Amino acid sequence: MGQFLQQLINGIQIGSIYALIALGYTMVYGIVRLINFAHADIFMFGAYMGFFLAPVMAKVFGGAFIPTIIAAMLITGLLGFVMEKLAYRPLRYKSRLSALITALGVSIFLENFCAMPFVFGPTFRAFPDLIVAKNIPIPGNLGLSVSNVLLLDIGVSVILMVLLFWFVNKTLIGKQMRAVAFDKPTASLMGINIDVVISTAFIVGPALAGAGGILYGTTYGMLASPFLGIWPGLKAFIAAVLGGIGNIPGAVLGAYIMGISEAFATSVNSNLGYGIAFAILIGILLIRPSGLLGKFMPEKV
Amino acid sequence: MLLEVRNIDVFYGSIRALKGVSFSVEKGEIVSIIGANGAGKSTTLRAISGILRAASGSIIYDGHDITHTPPHLIARMGISHVPEGRGIFGNLTVQENLDVALSSVKDKKTAGPNQDKVFSLFPRLKERRRQISGTLSGGEQQMLAVGRGLMQNNPFMLLDEPSMGLSPVLTEEIFGVIVEINQLGKTVLLVEQNAFKALSIANRGYVLETGSVVLAGTAAELRDNPDVKKAYLGG
């Protein structure tokens, strides 16, 4: 029982990080119907920003966590904005395959560019302590404990997700985003500038991934290499597909399912932790290709 | 002249959907474009609102050349296009549909009065404002599409088949609203398959056939024209 609850808690923790990444995949897909493979590398970029900025922020502000995460979100938001403008906008009215291949190209470029010695470097980096890690035992005789890092991961993701739901549902630009996702030509008749809405999605999604990168660094205490985004990115992408790609609550649901099943699978065998992601992908594609909360939408001709 | 369309050509791929179409709309008029399915009526409206680009020719609105202006700017310049097949945002609530229409409105303070006007014309929308609009009935969706156009409070409205799929009672109601909108001082360009109804409220009309204007005149002239009678008014 104790083991079960402990894995559940671990799963929710990693699921929170996946959720922050998955939201970016789903938002961008919902609006431009593009799987932005470079999103995983934006996450990586956010984590490295934490590595470089934390010492500076600690000196300037005293505490490191909040200023670092905000700075990382601003920078990854800017990176997403520039990426869309340079790489995807010129292909907006070309075939979707061209954009998809471009996304793969941007991803490979970011990974290898960042791995160059004078950029981030290809080697292992110890992530600075943004907070002092502490274990808090849970009262009772199950022998459970949670770390303050775990509480931070869950707390920060929940706050950001609540902010995102507010943004998408209550603000004019959020409503515009949903209108554009539904029908672009009609949205433009409403006076909506489609370019602004697309740029917004490419700022907000990457900013969330940047926050995820900071949480990732804080949780694992190290950055293996600029290729570190690949696995979390892949899992978050599968989570978005599981929830129904294009559907925001679906991405969150999918991410938590992914995190929890991974935690349990890893407790059996660490390789199974990787395998479970693909088992979930195959399962959902077989049983419900539109995802748990997604609606089947026939291609419009 | 509020709108002048000069000799425009519009292509879908390699298909020439409009072949040198010219017509004009005066301020305060209801002008109707009638014609069979596929004659190019909707294409004409899409070219005016900027969703489709005219390959040649020009479109002048209120003295400005809008031939190459993007659609969101045309909406902000004063043209509301109520698209065919309603084109409501089915994933948004009724209220949210009305809210996004305000994207073209600079002065957000006019939102309240605009909305009151829409709700007084369509009380049904007020009752259903929290409902997801995709679950509305066809007639209610049409009301929402027109209401959304009115939210923008633009002086010029393009209406594409507002009676499509509606019962005779609702059709009557919608045409009543169009006359009311016109009396509020708005100019209306109306595209309809229901030629008889359209010509009964219009000042002038144009007949479109396979991408060309084949006939123009006052609504009364068109109603009495034997060819029009035979082709569009059921003998």
Automatic annotation (TrEMBL), chain A:
Belongs to the binding-protein-dependent transport system permease family. LivHM subfamily. The chain crosses the membrane at residues 12-32, 39-58, 64-87, 99-120, 149-168, 189-216, 236-260, 272-291. It holds the Pfam family BPD_transp_2. It is a multi-pass membrane protein. This is Branched-chain amino acid ABC transporter permease. GO terms for biological process: D-alanine transmembrane transport; L-alanine transport; L-isoleucine import across plasma membrane. It comes from Candidatus Cryosericum septentrionale. PANTHER family: BRANCHED-CHAIN AMINO ACID TRANSPORT SYSTEM PERMEASE PROTEIN LIVH, HIGH-AFFINITY BRANCHED-CHAIN AMINO ACID TRANSPORT SYSTEM PERMEASE PROTEIN LIVH. Its main location: membrane. GO terms for molecular function: L-isoleucine transmembrane transporter activity; L-leucine transmembrane transporter activity; L-phenylalanine transmembrane transporter activity; L-valine transmembrane transporter activity. GO terms for cellular component: plasma membrane. It comes from the Bacteria. Signal peptide: none annotated. Coiled coil: none annotated. It is found in: Cell membrane. Keywords: Amino-acid transport, Cell inner membrane, Cell membrane, Membrane, Transmembrane, Transmembrane helix, Transport.
